[in-house]
Task: inverse folding
């Protein structure tokens, strides 16, 4: 299907464009949904989309189409060209990126996912559901299995030409426990992989275990103390932080870290890397949206801010180099986020905590533009004298993202992959917990 992007680029140049970029994606997916303790829907979908950017001088025009016939491509390019000609100049525009060699990225395609049929997908989903329902206290309000096979093609008028393919399978289950008139809090277990290595039985068991763990919750009095962010919450925490390192937020002046390159912004034990080349990484690929090679970028090194993430557009504005993080034309997003492990075992993370919380789910707001953190913690457990005592009823936490980065006192030695984030557990001191 590389001829789709080639035709778009050639058509744009023939119309008189200075530069042209075309990005075509094709994805085939199977989705199995669970609702009210049973499978409710099985669907097979094909999604395709051709995105075109036409540049005339410093004027930009964009169009999108799902019609990749010759006439459909020509019409989309003509629309983008007309829009560019009628637009105002973008004073920040430099030029499209030039071709560079792509890295060798392993583990992003699995024939077993590619050949997965609807019948096998339903069977895997039933295994997940059956395991959770093995406990009579459990009900399953929802869940899903989604498998996707995707292809991506990109080309531009400066010579970039790339094609890549990948597979992904995701499973998720929501569970609720009821016992003796008590209803626990919703619990969610999930995982996603580029390979056919997920275990539906383990996901079902984890959802049920989490749900049962929430039974017998007790109120907790307000206090200031340490909290341990479990893997899901740590992943959410670091993902929100990475928004402040987004080159688009930086050049627009919306990031509090815009002038902090080279400065210490976190504790020595925190180092964070963006790496789009990790073997089997959920966001690993040969190239980004623009056709720029994926790469490894050190963002935080022992607490010091080293880099922002950029596409070619934001890099041009900031006077730096692209980091291969284009997620759309003019837009930026991280790839795989790797938080370096620390030296604290699971047992040592809890040791000496007189009174604190283990937080397994957070429902609230983390605002990278000002650091505000406010919301309720769910699936949380009281820690007293180094031991987990009991689940707590829903309570609130508040604080500031950037202050928390300097209150991390322990970083776990065990890493877990939570989507595109690979993170340890972390301990943050002096957090306001509101009962």
Result:
């Amino acid at each position: 299907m590389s001829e789709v992007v080639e035709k778009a680029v050639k058509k744009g140049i023939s119309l008189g464009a200075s530069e042209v970029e075309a990005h075509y994606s094709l994805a085939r997916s199977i989705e199995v949904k669970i609702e009210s303790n049973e499978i409710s829907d099985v669907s097979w979908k094909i999604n395709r989309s051709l995105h075109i950017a036409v540049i005339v001088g410093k004027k930009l025009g964009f169009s999108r189409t799902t019609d990749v016939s010759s006439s459909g491509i020509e019409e989309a390019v003509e629309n983008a060209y007309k829009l560019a000609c009628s637009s105002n100049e973008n004073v920040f525009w430099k030029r499209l990126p030039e071709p560079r060699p792509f890295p060798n990225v392993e583990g992003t395609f699995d024939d077993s996912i590619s050949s997965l049929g609807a019948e096998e997908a339903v069977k895997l989903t039933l295994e997940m559901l059956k395991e959770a329902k093995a406990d009579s206290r459990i009900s399953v309000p929802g869940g899903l299995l989604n498998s996707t096979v995707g292809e991506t093609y990109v080309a531009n008028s400066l010579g970039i030409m790339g094609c890549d393919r990948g597979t992904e399978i995701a499973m998720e289950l929501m569970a609720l426990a009821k016992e003796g008139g008590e209803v626990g809090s919703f619990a969610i277990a999930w995982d996603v992989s580029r390979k056919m290595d997920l275990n539906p039985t383990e996901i079902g068991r984890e959802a049920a275990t989490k749900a049962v763990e929430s039974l017998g919750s007790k109120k907790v009095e307000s206090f200031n103390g340490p909290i341990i962010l479990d893997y899901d919450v740590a992943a959410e925490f670091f993902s929100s932080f990475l928004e402040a390192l987004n080159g688009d937020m930086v050049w627009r002046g919306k990031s509090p870290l815009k002038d902090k390159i080279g400065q210490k912004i976190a504790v020595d034990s925190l180092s964070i890397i963006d790496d789009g080349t990790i073997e089997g990484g959920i966001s690993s690929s040969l190239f980004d949206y623009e056709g720029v090679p994926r790469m490894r970028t050190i963002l935080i090194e022992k607490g010091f801010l080293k880099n922002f993430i950029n596409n070619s557009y934001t890099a041009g504005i900031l006077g730096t180099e692209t980091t291969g993080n284009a997620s759309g034309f003019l837009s930026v997003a991280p790839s795989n986020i790797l938080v370096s492990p620390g030296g604290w075992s699971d047992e040592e993370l809890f040791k000496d905590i007189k009174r604190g919380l283990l937080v397994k789910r957070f429902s609230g707001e983390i605002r990278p533009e000002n650091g505000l953190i406010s919301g309720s913690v769910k699936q949380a457990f009281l820690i007293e004298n180094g031991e987990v005592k009991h689940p707590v009823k829903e309570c609130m936490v508040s604080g500031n993202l950037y202050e928390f980065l300097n209150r991390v006192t322990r970083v776990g030695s065990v890493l877990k992959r939570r989507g595109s984030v690979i993170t340890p557990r972390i301990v943050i001191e002096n957090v306001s917990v509101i009962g």
Observations:
- The longest strand covers residues 38-56.
